[in-house]
Design the sequence.
């Protein structure tokens, strides 16, 4: 079941397949936070911790994310202050941190300073339909 969710997340977002491990982590969080009839309408996470999971904080995998660059990396006052990337999920090592794949530098960073557009997926390739003969 996790692999089906991962496959869907990667295809739906257009994210590169080498980011699969981040998709697996987020998919496992979604599955463990989802209520199940076999568990008397409780989630596995709720059974383990005793608290209801906060599913409102789960963001879509691969959606657009802009991180704020540190001042030393901006290159001047008139240069962009942010960098565009794709959202990969929460960073368990950092309180309130998230993993973001930066498109320009092709690197993965962990940051707390992030803005997300849940409806934009920058890796998706839109192709126009071919004309019919």
Sequence:
């Amino acid at each position: 079941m996790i692999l089906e969710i991962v496959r869907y997340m990667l295809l739906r977002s257009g994210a590169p397949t080498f980011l699969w491990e981040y998709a697996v982590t987020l998919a496992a969080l979604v599955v463990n936070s989802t209520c199940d009839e076999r568990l008397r309408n409780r989630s596995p996470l709720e059974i383990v911790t005793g608290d209801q999971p906060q599913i409102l904080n789960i963001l879509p995998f691969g959606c657009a994310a802009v991180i704020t660059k540190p001042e030393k990396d901006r290159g001047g006052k008139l240069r962009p202050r942010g960098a565009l990337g794709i959202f990969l999920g929460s960073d368990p090592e950092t309180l309130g941190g998230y993993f973001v794949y930066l498109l320009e530098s092709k690197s993965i960073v962990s940051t707390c300073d992030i803005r997300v557009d849940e409806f934009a997926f920058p890796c998706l390739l839109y192709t126009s339909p071919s004309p019919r003969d």
Observations:
- The radius of gyration is 18 Å.
- The first helix runs from residue 2 to 13.
- The helical segments are 2-13, 20-33, 44-49.
